[in-house]
Automatic annotation (TrEMBL):
Pfam families found in the cross-reference section: TetR_N
Naturally occurring in which organism (per UniProt): Saccharopolyspora aridisoli
HTH tetR-type domain mapped to chain residues: 38-98
Keywords of the record: DNA-binding
Secreted recorded as keyword: no
Alphabetized GO MF terms: DNA-binding transcription factor activity; transcription cis-regulatory region binding
Name the UniProt record assigns to this protein: TetR/AcrR family transcriptional regulator
Composition bias type Basic and acidic residues, residue spans: 1-18, 25-39
InterPro entries for the chain: Homeodomain-like_sf (IPR009057), HTH-type_TetR-like_transc_reg (IPR050109), HTH_TetR (IPR001647)
Segments of this protein annotated with the region Disordered: 1-39
């Protein structure tokens, strides 16, 4: 067999020059970087969140995200497959932040009015802290099934947790205007959509919204405000 033929067969099998093996190894490395949580990926996601907040989803590009992170387009693709994947990852972070606001220590020993005020304020402030992102997530959920899955799961969990809390209270301490599950869904929609519109509003408008929504919640749940 001639040397050239042997080399050709080696190339076909992917042995001599390692073309197939290298390609597979590169893709595995990319996949590992995409899955890994590290400083570079977090920088890219922070840059993506800032771009989405400042420019909106449609106007944001991979190039703009990479520039905001002070890196290159190839580096972006080493950690994230697309703008959509970046938005999905940002959505995961926002959802985690919002869910954490409802985890109140010693909740069973606190008066209901204290729980309602604390969780309402914390949830609204978390939405404000994300600027326009919550409004964009809510909008993208209508057209992106993956974003919708994350967003809907969070909303269901929060509603279920709040409804469970209300249902477990002494009936003499509250007087909800409608059944807890229905009431919580209505209050959830109100605070998410209302606070999301105020993502870049002045502090006084945000504070007014929080106070108004606390009063609304207290009256709807039927707790005695001090």
């Amino acid at each position: 067999m001639s040397a050239s033929r042997a080399h050709a067969e080696g190339r076909h099998r992917g042995h001599d020059d390692g073309v197939g093996t290298t390609s597979d190894a590169q893709e595995r490395a990319r996949a590992n970087r995409r899955e890994a949580s590290g400083p570079r990926r977090e920088e890219l996601l922070a840059a993506a969140a800032a771009c989405f907040d400042d420019l909106g989803y449609a106007a944001t590009t991979v190039e703009l995200i990479a520039a905001r992170a002070q890196t290159s387009r190839p580096t972006f693709y080493a950690y994230l497959r697309s703008k959509d994947e970046a938005f999905l990852a940002v959505t995961e972070q926002v959802c985690a932040q919002l869910e954490s606001t409802q985890q109140l220590d010693g909740i069973d020993s606190l008066p209901p009015v204290t729980v309602l005020r604390s969780t309402t304020r914390a949830f609204a402030e978390a939405i404000f802290a994300n600027g326009s992102l919550v409004a964009q997530i809510d909008s993208r959920a209508g057209v992106d099934p993956e974003v919708d899955a994350l967003w809907s799961t969070l909303r269901r969990r929060l509603v279920r947790r709040f409804a469970h809390y209300l249902s477990g209270l002494d009936p003499t301490t509250i007087d909800p205007c409608v059944p807890p599950q229905q009431l919580v869904s209505m209050l959830s929609d109100s605070i998410v959509r209302g606070a999301a519109r105020l993502g870049h509003a002045p502090d006084r408008d945000r504070e007014q919204f929080i106070n108004d929504h606390i009063r609304l919640t207290e009256r709807a749940v039927g707790v005695a405000a001090d």
